[in-house]
């Protein structure tokens, strides 16, 4: 895969493909479809689009011939969250987070997180997942005394090693409710399967003095470039005008994958519609034959009607160089 320079993202304008979601779960059975991770046709053995996302049931697999209309294939791993697909040679690595939820008189409780890895050569048959990192091994995975949690793992090949980046520390926003990552860090290994050495400090953290991420770091998706590393962050902040929490997509840049600077805002959560609550996650790739960036994202909002449900669905942003 050819890496583009950082300027290829910085010099883009973005627009929504559609005012409506391009993919959604069942309204009552799986109302929330989240954390898309996709592969372009030139990255797959069958030359079609593949997308992975999660519902409360686990990791779901979708395929498409256009990237616009998606067919559900099957549920891959029950209880899995936040999938990411890394392609290295003839092997595909599916990385995801898993934790156990229990319910009692005092409400919902979650166990510590495990990051799991499964492999495939055809994207259809996957090996039994194995644990490659536990949240108890990450010093900053416990935020303000909460159970240590990890979010949104992703793998990047960098300077002869593999970096496993992840969100860490569970922080619950209110009105509307959303559990999000407080910080963003990584671990390193010589092999995708590990063992991984955890870097003890996060590279991005929630900062009450930074208006862009005053409430939470949220989801960060990395884009390796020829001269550094770009990232799209779905960060959370307090809107002083609307007097409520909001989220927005930020474009970040880094030369070393350690120090990230905010370049600009890509998109805010709208004030109404299917994505009016939060922009929660994204995945982004460049399609060379169209000279276009594809950014699939998940967002939450409330349906219209007498018994409105909070739903999470997938949307699509397209980016073109100016």
CATH superfamily annotation: Glycosyl hydrolase domain, family 43
CATH third-tier fold name: Tachylectin-2, Chain A
Number of domains: 1
- What distance separates the N and C termini? 23 Å
Helix content: under 10%
Label this structure with key terms:
single chain; 322 residues; mainly beta; Tachylectin-2, Chain A; four-stranded antiparallel sheet; Glycosyl hydrolase family 43; Glyco_hydro_beta-prop_sf
Entry summary:
This protein has 322 residues and is an all-beta fold.
Word description of this protein:
The chain is an all-beta fold and 322 residues long. It has a single domain, classed as Glycosyl hydrolase domain, family 43 (Tachylectin-2, Chain A). Helices cover 1% and strands 56% of the residues. The chain has one helix spanning 7-10, and strands spanning 12-16, 34-39, 49-54, 58-64, 71-78, 80-88, 91-98, 101-104, 107-110, 114-120, 130-134, 150-158, 161-173, 178-189, 197-198, 204-205, 216-225, 228-239, 244-254, 261-268, 278-287, 292-302, 310-321. Strands 12, 13, 14, 15 and 16 form a 5-stranded antiparallel beta sheet that branches. A hairpin with a 4-residue loop joins strand 18 (228-239) and strand 19.
């Amino acid at each position: 895969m050819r890496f583009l320079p950082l300027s290829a993202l910085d010099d883009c304008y973005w627009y929504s493909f559609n005012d409506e979601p391009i993919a959604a779960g069942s309204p009552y059975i799986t109302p929330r479809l989240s954390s898309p991770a996709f592969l372009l046709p030139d990255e797959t053995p069958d030359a079609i689009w593949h997308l992975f996302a999660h519902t409360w049931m686990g990791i779901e697999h979708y395929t498409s011939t256009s990237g616009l209309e998606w067919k559900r294939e099957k549920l891959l791993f029950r209880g899995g969250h936040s999938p990411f697909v890394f392609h290295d040679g003839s092997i595909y690595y599916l990385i995801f987070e898993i934790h156990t939820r229990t319910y009692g008189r005092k409400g919902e409780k979650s166990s510590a997180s495990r990051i799991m890895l499964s492999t495939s050569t055809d994207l259809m048959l996957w090996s039994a997942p194995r644990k490659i990192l536990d949240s108890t091994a990450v010093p900053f995975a416990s935020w303000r005394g909460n159970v240590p949690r990890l979010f949104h793992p992703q793998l990047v090949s960098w300077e002869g090693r593999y970096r496993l980046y992840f969100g860490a520390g569970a922080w619950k926003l209110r009105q509307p409710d959303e559990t999000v990552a407080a910080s963003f860090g990584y671990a390193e290994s010589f092999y995708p399967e590990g063992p991984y050495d955890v870097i003890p400090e996060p590279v991005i953290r929630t900062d009450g003095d930074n208006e862009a991420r005053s409430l939470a770091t949220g989801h960060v998706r990395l884009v390796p470039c020829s001269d550094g590393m770009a990232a799209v962050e779905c960060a959370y902040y307090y809107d002083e005008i609307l007097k409520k929490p909001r989220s927005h997509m930020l474009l970040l840049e880094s030369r070393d994958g350690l120090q990230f600077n905010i370049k600009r805002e890509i998109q805010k959560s709208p004030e109404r519609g299917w994505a009016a609550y939060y922009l929660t996650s994204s995945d982004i790739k460049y399609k060379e034959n169209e000279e276009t960036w594809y950014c699939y994202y998940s967002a939450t909002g409330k349906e219209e009607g007498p018994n409105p449900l909070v739903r999470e669905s997938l949307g699509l942003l397209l980016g073109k160089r100016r």
